[in-house]
Amino acid sequence: MTKTSPAVPSASSFIRSRKHAAPCLTGSALAVLATLAAPLAHADGGNKDVDPTIPKVEVTGAARRDVQAPVASSSDKFTAPLLDTPKSVSVIPQEVISQTAAVTLTDALRTVPGITIGAGEGGNPVGDNVFIRGYNAQTDTYVDGIRDSGSQSREIFNLEQVEVVKGPNSAYGGRSSAGGGINLVSKSAQQDNFNNASVGIGTDKYRRVTGDINRTLGNNAAFRLNVMAHEADVAGRDVVGGDRWGIAPTVTFGLNGPTKAILSYYHMQSSEIPDTGIPFNNPFSSGVNVAKNGDGTPIDVPRETFYGLANRDFRDTKTDIGTVDLRHEFGGGLVLRNVTRYGKSQNDFVWTQPDDSKGNVVLYGTVWRRANTRVTDTETMANTTALTGKLSTGAIKHSFNAGVEISRETTERAAYVFTPGTNNLLTGNTVCATSGAATGYNCAPLVNPNPYDPWVYTRSVSPALTKVKTNTRAVYAFDTIEFNPQWMLNIGARWDEFKTVLDTAANGATAAVRAHVDTSFDTYQAGLVYKPSANGSVYVSYATSATPPGNDGGDGLDGLTVAVQNLQPQESKNWELGTKWEVLNSRLSLNAAVFQSKMNNARVTAPDGTTQNVGRKELKGLELGFSGKLTNAWQVFGGYTWLDGIVADNGYLNVGTTAAPRYEPSPYNGNIFPTTPKHSASLWTSYAFNKDFSAGIGMNYVDKVYANINNTKYAPSYTRFDAMASYNLNKNVSFQLNIQNLGDKLYFDRVSSPHYAGVGAGRSASLTANLKF
What is the structure's pLDDT at 615? Predict the structure, then answer.
């Protein structure tokens, strides 16, 4: 039989996006993109002479082997297929996650250029700390479209795919950074029976077991269970490692009816010794000590050097998320959906930071073992109700989504205190002219520190408990307006009310602290899409984001303080010009985009010494991406990103004294964004030599990354290679060998702290048996 249908949606590894208005980009840039796009317009056999107003005829039946199914959007807020979404969005599919042997979110994100991973620091908890396009997106992680609060290190055992939205994200997710957001798409019960399991062993005590079982319950319901147990050390690093386990059941009712209910639960907990990294060769000294100045790169010590204390350092986490997802189809494409979620996360750690800020590194060849500690519980309640549908107003077609969201986040945070303390016992301060037992082992030699020093102190939780309560309400609406098959307008708007209160209990001579924010903000997006062919699009877009004080909800670097409580939200704007194409019979997705973003009211120190919204940051860049198959046997995934970010106005610095301050314009105006590599690229490619054997290789390149706004400390550029080979023993058993960091490259992949750089893992290997039964 035949039926009429609209153009086939995107098969890309690019997800949906937002919509924006008049971009501030040049006509020459548009001409370049149009020129690049022209040879692709008919790469899948499209005929330019065909009248696009004539309905397409689709013959149903068995799919051709060389046609790949389009990647569907997981979010109702994306009202157009990926191909026609005017935004840079990348989807990491399950196949790439599996082939690269990723076991954490940060492992998976390594395949997307333009993303860097930050390090923990004094006010920044250990956990996923992601920078997108140079902006901190630590609080911009979502699980199935709902904000996932609390500092965590996220697993992938229950993920179907990872979606990275680039550029301002507030119209979709509310308060957010200017860089973008990450949405984790969970596995759910399916209408098939299957049993999958994997058992992996490897170097560095690697052990991993996963299970994925799905069962139908009659004709209209299904149950799915995912489980995971994992343990491993970090290749090339002494002491560092740990274990974790998780379970994620889900049940779906109404698989074949108009009303569907999905009930799911996720639990994951871990226990580990976190990494300390390597301190920077600090360009600290002046005058008589100038000969001891460093070059700003990490200290040249053996890769395995660990500055922590094995009998003191630890990190224990626990995450629980329960979700009820209800939806009803009224017919005619109209769907009402309500999602309720409760989540709780705990992050408890003592972690040694090799602090270079005290001058010990260059003056004495020692480090102070600074103890960063945290005891945090975060609870979240969230509910969203949305209506999705299609309608026509004359010849104009609309695909819309509108809804309301409410949430409440509560964080309780404290620190550990030690008796007699963590300063040098000889001096009572952080000066470490010597190291060893006399200092209480709080000072360690720069070379060959002993992680098993007999450090024995009494540990207790500080009575200075901080409580942060955050309430949000939001309404939003999105619409893709199709004027004709060649032209679409994608628009969206959101209003947020954001209220947060911080209370810190008095502690000895320290008085109690209270701060609060009560603000609201509007964010927008608009994008004009032109389709020169059914398999391609060219777009211009505009989007905004808002980052209010206390954006992190009490558990991150962007915390609420008395100094910032009266400030307005930081607002960012992004202009983008791009093109997307589905070629080779929709097997391969290609995209290109140029963009420019500005944050015009960044929080910095003002001329009078107060914190005000007077700063400015500017970023421009280029992205290229590809995902899919060049042939039935040859898969590719990756891209390239060029970023040029500068701190246009960093406010003022005190060049006087504390008693007699004198503020002058910051000497760092014009410096490069920290955590922002100018060039980054990634590639994962695999080839099936026959039905049983395939192999793959991956490459990641990251340019030099500055760790501070002074641009004096940095991690050098690096290129890392990975490899994979798999063999199908039979239809039920296959084996996969992965070698990570094939060349055993020494590199530094976490650099947001100005005091140390995180060391990338050395070469490791794992062999996994994948079972179907």
Answer: 79
In angstroms, the Cα distances linking 629 to 43, 340, 360, 443 are 14, 38, 53, 54
d(CA 4, CA 389): 19
pLDDT at 83: 93
pLDDT of the residue at 50? 40
Q: Residues 226-249: pLDDT tens digits?
A: 999 999 999 999 999 999 999 999
Residue 256 is part of which domain span?
2-772
d(CA 472, CA 82): 29
Gap between the Cα atoms of 214 and 196, Å rounded: 9
Distances (CA, A) of 673 to 544, 618, 677: 20, 9, 9
CB 168 within 8 A of CB 546: no
Residue 422 in contact with residue 439, Cβ under 8 Å?
Answer: no
Neighbours of 695 (CB within 10 A): 16
Both tokens assigned to 452: 């098993």
Is 297 strand, coil or helix?
coil
> What is the helix (H) or strand (E) element at residue 152, kind and residue range?
none
Any idea what the CATH number is for the domain that residue 154 is in? Answer: 2.40.170.20
**197-237 pLDDT tens trace:** 999 999 999 999 999 999 999 999 999 999 999 999 999 99
Among the listed ranges 40-49, 155-164, 469-478, 586-595, which one has the minimum average pLDDT value?
40-49
Structural contact between residues 752 and 709, judged by C-beta atoms closer than 8 angstroms: no
Exposure of 732 by Cβ count < 10 A (0-12 exposed, 13-18 middle, 19+ buried)?
Answer: exposed
* pLDDT score recorded for residue 651: 87
Domains in the chain: how many in total? 1
Q: How far apart are CA 773 and CA 424, in angstroms?
A: 59
Q: Is residue 454 exposed (0-12), middle (13-18) or buried (19+ Cβ within 10 Å)?
A: exposed
Q: How many residues does the chain have?
A: 773
d(CA 339, CA 383): 6
3 state SS of 109: helix
Residues 553/470, Cβ–Cβ less than 8 Å: yes
Tokens representing 239 are 């002491």
> Which residues does 626 contact at the CB level (< 8 Å), separation at least 6?
588, 589, 590, 591, 636, 637, 638, 639
**Band (73; pLDDT cuts 50, 70, 90):** low
Angle at the Cα of 594 from the Cα atoms of 593 and 595, rounded to 5 degrees: 120
The number of CA neighbours under 13 Å toward the Cβ of 139 is: 25
Please tell me the distance from the alpha carbon of residue 99 to that of residue 198, in angstroms, as a whole number.
13
Q: How confident is the model at residue 25 (pLDDT cuts 50, 70, 90)?
A: very low
Tell me the two tokens of residue 395.
Answer: 């010849």
Answer with the residue of higher pLDDT: 559 or 653: 653
Beta carbons within 8 Å of 566's beta carbon, 6+ residues apart: none
Contacts of 534 (CB under 8 A, 6+ apart): 7, 8, 46, 52, 56, 485
Which residue in 175, 174, 171 sits closest to 525, CA to CA? Answer: 171
